[in-house]
Structures are given as C-alpha cells and as structure tokens.
C-alpha cells in the first residue's frame, strides 16, 4: 500500500506537509497549488489516510461487497428541506431507494466537497455503492468519482460530463416557452437567467432555447435585456430594476426567465416600477414550482417533472447496480407548458 512518504516523494514535499494536507490541518498555511498536487498524488497512488482504513480497502478490493448505501452531491449551496426545485427530486429519489432496501449515506453540496479530505472520506471510508449528482457539481468532483472502482454514477442536469443522466430537454422546453410569447404577438423579449456548466451564459441550455426561438421567428436579440443573474435571486430583482430605470433603452414587452425563482423577484421589480403584468410586460418561466400558481398574477411556466426525474434516476441507478443498465445513457422525460395569466394578455 502507498504511504505518506510515497506521496511526499512524488510531489516533492516533506512528509509532514503531505500529512497536514491529507488530515486537512489548517494550523499552518500551505500553498493551494501544493495542496492540489498532494491530492492528485493521493488519487494517483490510491492512498487511504489511516492504517485501519488501508486494511479495509485491501479487504474490500479482494472481495467487494455491496454496502446498500447511496450518496448524493448537489450543486446548490442553499440546500435545505424545502428547496422548491431540488427538494422534490431528492425526496422522490430517496423514497425509491429506501423502498429497494438502500439507504442515503450522505447529502453534500459541491461547495462542501471542495474540501478534498471530506470528498475522500465520503467515497473511500463510507463506501457507497453509487452516487447521484444533482446539478453542475464541477468537473473535478466528477473526475474523482469516475476513478473510484465499482462506483455507479447517475446525474441530473450534469452537463458536460460523460455519465448516465436523467433530465428533460431544456433547449426544447425553453423554446416552447418563448414560442408561446411570440404567438401572443411579442417582438421584444428579454431574458433572465444564469450561466451554464462552463460558467458562461452561452453554455446554458435554456438560454440556447431562448435564442433558437428568437432566431426562428426572425426577432433580433436585445442585448440590454439579456440579464445574467448568476442564479442569484436578489440579483434578478436588482438587475431588472436597474434596466427599468434606464431611459436610453427600450423596455421589452415580455420576459422569459430560466427559472421561477428568478422570475418572481423580476416580476416584483416590474410591479414596483408601476407597470402591469402582463399588460406592460408579460412573463413566462421554467420549473413550475408550487409557488408559481400563487404569484400575482399567476406565473406561466414550463412544468418540469421533478418527482418523476427523482424516481427515474433512482430506478436507473438501481438497475446499474444490478448490471441491467448501460453505464452511459441519457433519459429525457417530457415537460409541459402551463399557461397562466402572466402571459396571456392579448395585445392589439
């Protein structure tokens, strides 16, 4: 088995430095580049940080037995029990695996697992059979998980990764929403959203769907009203309010939002500017969270089958663990346009 000495020699640091990195000892500053090199050596050499764990890894490699445990890694730092989008997915996923005799060993955000020691502990000490990734958890985490032996992976909206995915067609769903606005007579449509897996707005599939609909209809994009909120609710309100106060740009007659959570504060900015929805600015959005039907006016939205996505992801992962599902596939579930009063004003 590799030792701390092997890691230290590979990286070119002292054994004590290698030990502090692996133990996540923050009592002395260590250059971030050095830390990254140490963790890369840990992965490369398949090092396990304590003697008892090393014996356990040896035994499990010789005779790997299922632990009946599943892990969950989620993108958002705002993880809570009532998150309007993620909660139904995780709840339905958990329900399905519990019914099948498995348990959920951990739920961590990608921010938490930026701590390499915690990531290493979750995968090599807890010993889960599979992991579900929800959202853009980052390429470093995905790459680390892909290197783990006999670990089944499934993702939901983990774009840019080569793992099995369960999702819905974001491009087509967004295009259907914008097509609805265009059918209502709108020729000036704004966008409120956030970046995709590359960190740029252009890689976001809902933004791509928005652009496709506009191009198909021959409607030019109004760059002043393409708002990147970085998926921050407060920023949605602030940026829309800023644009509304400008006198040098034309206000759009409609706005497409990449999520209900961004649409609701944007709608508040419209109302506080003494404008009416949908008479002055129509709204349509994505996700159809429960609260969308209770806004004033009720928000038109594309229904995303969140419960079904969680159930299907669980069933697919369980099939993978039984060897009944390919290790690389993509399952897309149907979406549905829900038209409410925020987008149905008939313009002359």
From TrEMBL:
Entry annotated with the keyword Nuclease: no
PROSITE patterns attached to this UniProt entry: HTH_LACI_1, HTH_LACI_2
CDD domains: HTH_LacI, PBP1_GalR
A Pfam family assignment: Peripla_BP_3
An MF annotation (GO) of this entry: DNA-binding transcription factor activity
Highest taxon of the lineage: Bacteria
Taxonomic classification: Bacteria, Bacillati, Bacillota, Bacilli, Bacillales
Entry keyword set: DNA-binding, Transcription, Transcription regulation
The protein's name: HTH lacI-type domain-containing protein
PANTHER family with a match to the protein in the record: HTH-TYPE TRANSCRIPTIONAL REGULATOR EBGR, LACI-RELATED TRANSCRIPTIONAL REPRESSOR
SUPFAM superfamilies: lambda repressor-like DNA-binding domains (SSF47413), Periplasmic binding protein-like I (SSF53822)
Organism, as annotated: Paenibacillus ferrarius
Domain HTH lacI-type, chain residue ranges per copy: 2-58
């Amino acid at each position: 088995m590799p030792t701390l000495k092997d890691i230290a020699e590979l990286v070119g640091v002292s054994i004590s430095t290698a030990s502090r990195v692996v133990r996540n000892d923050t009592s002395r500053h260590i250059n971030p580049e050095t830390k990254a090199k140490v963790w890369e050596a840990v992965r490369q050499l398949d090092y396990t940080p304590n003697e008892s764990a090393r014996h356990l890894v040896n035994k499990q490699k010789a005779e790997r037995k299922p632990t009946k445990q599943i892990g969950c890694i989620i993108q958002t730092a705002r993880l809570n029990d009532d998150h309007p989008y993620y909660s139904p997915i995780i709840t339905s996923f958990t329900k399905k695996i519990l019914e099948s005799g498995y348990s959920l060993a951990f739920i961590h955000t990608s921010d938490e697992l930026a701590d390499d020691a915690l990531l290493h502990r979750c995968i090599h000490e807890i010993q889960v059979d599979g992991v579900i990734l929800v959202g853009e958890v980052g390429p470093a985490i995905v790459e680390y998980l892909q290197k783990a032996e006999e670990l089944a992976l499934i993702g939901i909206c983990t774009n840019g990764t080569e793992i099995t995915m369960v999702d819905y067609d974001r491009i087509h769903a967004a295009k259907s929403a914008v097509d609805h606005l265009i059918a209502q007579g709108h020729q000036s449509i704004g966008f409120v959203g956030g970046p995709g897996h590359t960190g740029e707005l252009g890689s976001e599939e809902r933004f791509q769907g928005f652009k496709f609909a506009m191009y198909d209809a021959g409607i030019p994009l109004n760059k002043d009203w393409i708002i990147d909120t970085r998926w921050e609710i407060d920023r949605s309100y602030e940026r829309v309010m800023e644009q509304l106060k400008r006198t040098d740009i034309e206000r759009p007659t409609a706005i497409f939002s990449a999520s209900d959570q961004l649409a609701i504060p944007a709608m508040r900015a419209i109302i506080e500017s003494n404008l009416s929805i949908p008479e002055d600015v129509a709204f349509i959005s994505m996700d159809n969270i429960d609260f969308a039907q209770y806004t004033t006016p009720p928000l038109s939205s594309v229904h995303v089958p969140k419960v079904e996505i969680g159930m299907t992801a669980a069933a697919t992962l369980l099939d993978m663990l039984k060897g009944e599902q390919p290790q690389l596939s993509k399952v897309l579930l149907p979406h549905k346009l829900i038209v409410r009063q925020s987008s149905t004003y008939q313009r002359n």
